[in-house]
Design a protein that fits this description.
single chain, 412 residues, Phosphorylase Kinase, domain 1, Aminoglycoside 3'-phosphotransferase, Chain: A, domain 2, 3 domains, six-stranded mixed β-sheet, 14 helices, 37% helix, 24% strand, globular, transferase activity, transferase
């Protein structure tokens, strides 16, 4: 549905970043709210996904007066240099003749068709009952539903507790759903400790079982050794060779120029520094083959579960495929090197863990490669504070860039 709104000219803002992150976004929000018979009272930018020169997606927290009363709402907008994508037709398109912007209200995400059902306890209870995930039918007041994470137009994860059982629900896009289910099934057949598929729906809802243990991200700061470096490597060694038959994903180092552009778009004064790091990483890894080892693809402390000092499970296997073992280990090193919001005791604890683990990783992969790939991952993580609109996103981004540079300086 195309509706007029004042948007200004496209000019140099081909990807819509200036429009969607600036004060002019208010005109779009007002138009969307008024079209739905509401009055926009106040708003602020909540989340930004930017692909410089290509597209921008942003979400906004908005307080709206509806005919039934005031309510907090989440709105999303997407602008693309090439014009609306096919799935944008599921949203309202606001146009002034020079730019088209897709606008939607959560949970009606145009790329996540299942979210509009998964977000409501009444509908979630009906889905659980229809799939037979528990004995008998359940009602909304018998389940506890909460959102774990939402990346607009990409994915959402919810946790639902029902009948003494905890399930996790992934809300996925068209085109990747069946491939994700197949990856889970592959690791289950290989006895890799990962979530099992409990149920699926036609609108891309994937129900997964709960893993035992606790996230490594939590165990890092508890008493005792969370796990050994050897058990982390051992978990990756359990991945079956069939993982290498899956499509290959670009590594972080392959995409380092892209991530540098994203970071520099938010922090232009860091452009030269980022360009230098990207050049060192690319030159240092030149000639290194792609590799054909089974890899997880996003191996970090939030994905790993531990219990009694050992690794007991791995989450988010959507990204498994062929690659280099150094990429997985580098991902973990980069994440641990860039943890935010730690106090002095916690920071010292993480340094001690890295000091114990990295020599083990160095014995399994080339140490120079490990650090250069870790730096590339860290640069990708530097896009996070701005994307999530953290209150101190500038200093946090700088600290991550510093960590990436420190990794490079160990070998450059």
């Amino acid at each position: 549905m195309r509706r007029p709104a004042w948007l200004g000219g496209r000019g140099k803002d081909a990807d819509g970043a200036v429009l969607l992150t600036g004060p002019e976004a208010e005109e779009l929000l007002k138009a969307a709210v008024e079209h739905a018979d509401g009055i926009l009272l106040e708003w602020h930018l909540d989340h930004v996904d930017a692909n410089p020169g290509q597209s921008t997606t942003a979400t906004y927290q908005a307080r709206v007066h509806w005919p039934t009363g005031e309510r907090q709402e989440l709105f999303g907008m997407s602008a693309r240099a090439s014009g609306p994508a096919m799935t944008d037709s599921r949203a309202d398109i606001y146009v002034d003749g020079s730019r088209e912007v897709a606008v939607w209200r959560y949970p009606d995400d145009p790329d996540l068709p299942g979210l509009s059902r998964a977000a409501y306890p009444e509908q979630m209870a009906a889905i659980i009952s229809d799939l037979g995930l528990v004995d008998g039918r359940v009602s909304a007041d018998q389940i506890n539903l909460r959102m774990i994470g939402y990346r607009p137009r990409r994915r959402a994860v919810l946790c639902v507790e029902v009948a003494n059982r905890r399930l996790y629900v992934k809300v996925l896009r068209d085109g990747i759903f069946q491939a994700t289910v197949a990856r889970h099934d592959l690791l289950t057949r290989a006895s890799v400790p990962s979530p099992r598929v409990a149920g699926i729906t036609d609108d891309n809802l994937l129900f997964l079982t709960e893993l035992p243990g606790h996230p490594l991200s939590k165990a890092l700061f508890e008493l005792g050794n969370p796990c050994t470096a050897e058990s982390l490597v051992g978990l990756l060694d359990q991945f079956p060779p069939q993982v290498c038959d899956l499509p290959r994903r670009s590594s972080w180092s392959d995409s380092v120029d892209h991530y540098c552009r994203m970071v520099a778009a938010a922090m232009p004064d860091q452009q030269a520094r980022l360009d230098r790091m990207a050049r060192i990483i690319s030159q240092g890894l030149m000639g290194v083959p792609q590799g054909n080892e089974p890899t997880h693809g996003d191996f970090h402390e939030g994905q790993i579960h531990v219990w009694n000092g050992q690794v007991c499970g791995i989450l988010d296997v959507d990204t498994i495929g062929p690659g280099r073992r150094a990429d997985d280990l580098a991902c973990l090193v980069a994440h641990l090197s860039t943890v935010q919001h730690m106090n002095a005791v916690q920071a010292d604890r993480v340094r001690q863990i890295l000091a114990a683990w990295v020599p083990v990783f160095d014995s399994r992969v080339d140490p120079v490669e490990l650090r250069l790939r870790s730096a590339a991952v860290a640069i990708s993580l530097a896009t996070g504070p701005y994307r999530s609109q953290e209150a101190n996103w500038g200093p946090e981004t700088l600290s991550i860039i510093d960590a990436a540079e420190a990794l490079i300086n160990q070998v450059a």
